[in-house]
Write a structure and sequence with these properties.
By secondary structure, the protein is α/β, with parallel strands linked by helices. The chain contains ten helices and 14 strands. It has a seven-stranded mixed β-sheet. InterPro entries: RibonucZ/Hydroxyglut_hydro.
């Protein structure tokens, strides 16, 4: 994809449309995979997403579900599935139903495909991809998500076989392959840094791409800026820098959800002027919304 704002990482196309407190919608595409994490704004890039995973109920992460559903219907697309923490299920359906009453011609809103997601769930989203939630630490109940890729490799004892022989074995229902579940992308949504310190999900720090909120990046003399970030349920850049060793196995870190008080240039200049070399080579910043919004 050549449009400005798309990042190509490990074969994935990622569109991180996010400003802290304003909106967050992160689009992920690869092969037959089209999904979004959160739907705080129905940006054009999110419309093809047939799977949407909601991290929590704050407006800047959830408010555009009805619009997303309606715009997909406008373009003749099938209904999308919206996965929400289970306590939000009835509330989201009620909101969609209210919009249906306002606009009675938009029938899809009266039968929205909203599905509750618990921490034990494993949701298939494409032929070789599935998503699992994990708990996060915010001011309201919240959860992040890990996108896994199921990789198939031929068993050693069958690697010498030619095509017709493989086809015959398959017809005989011989198990020819080993399958490995690879954690490719983690999305944190809104959270404090405690997420990474207290028994994190075992795959969280093994992913190829970590999409993590970094709402605050500035310094305020005489104030405990990290404590302020935690009290607000967010992460300060200083916490990531102070714990850089935790991310040694992560290939790429996409920082997002920067406060609206920072400009695009402020973010870029500040982040890359203070990051240690171990992080600088793997960090990207999601500032496209600062430029276009």
């Amino acid at each position: 994809m050549e449009e400005a704002g798309w990042s190509k990482l490990c074969g994935y196309s990622i569109y991180p449309w996010s400003i802290g407190g304003v909106f967050t919608t992160v689009v992920i595409m690869k092969d037959d995979l089209k999904l979004a994490f959160d739907m705080g704004d129905c940006c054009r890039q999110s419309i093809p997403c047939n799977h949407v995973f909601i991290s929590h109920g704050h407006m800047d992460h959830i408010s555009s579900i009805p619009q997303h559903s309606s715009r997909r219907e406008l373009f003749g697309m099938k209904k999308a599935s919206y996965y929400v923490p289970d306590h939000l299920l009835d509330l989201v359906k009620e909101v969609a139903s209210t919009f249906h009453q306002i606009n009675v011609t938009d029938k899809i809103l009266d039968n929205l495909d909203v599905r509750p997601v618990t921490l034990q769930d494993k949701i298939k989203v494409a032929r070789a991809y599935f998503v699992c939630p994990f708990p996060t630490v915010h001011r309201v109940p919240s959860q992040g998500y890990i996108l896994y890729r199921r990789q198939r490799t031929m068993k050693d004892e069958y690697k010498h076989l030619e095509g017709p022989e493989i086809a015959l074995k398959a017809k005989e229902r011989v198990e020819l392959y080993n399958y490995t579940e690879i954690p490719d992308i983690a999305y944190t949504g809104d959270t404090t840094f405690e997420l990474f310190l207290k028994s994190p999900h075992p795959d969280l720090l093994k992913v190829k791409i970590l999409i993590v909120e970094t709402t605050y990046i500035d310094e305020e003399p005489g104030k405990d800026i990290i404590r302020q970030a935690r009290d607000r349920g967010h992460i300060h850049l200083a916490e990531i820098i102070d714990n850089a060793h935790l991310f040694e196995n992560v290939q790429h870190i996409l920082l997002m959800h920067f406060s609206d008080k920072y400009s695009e240039n402020e973010i870029t200049d500040k982040v890359f002027s203070i990051l240690p070399e171990s992080l600088k080579k793997k960090v990207l910043v999601a500032t496209i919304a600062k430029r276009l919004y």
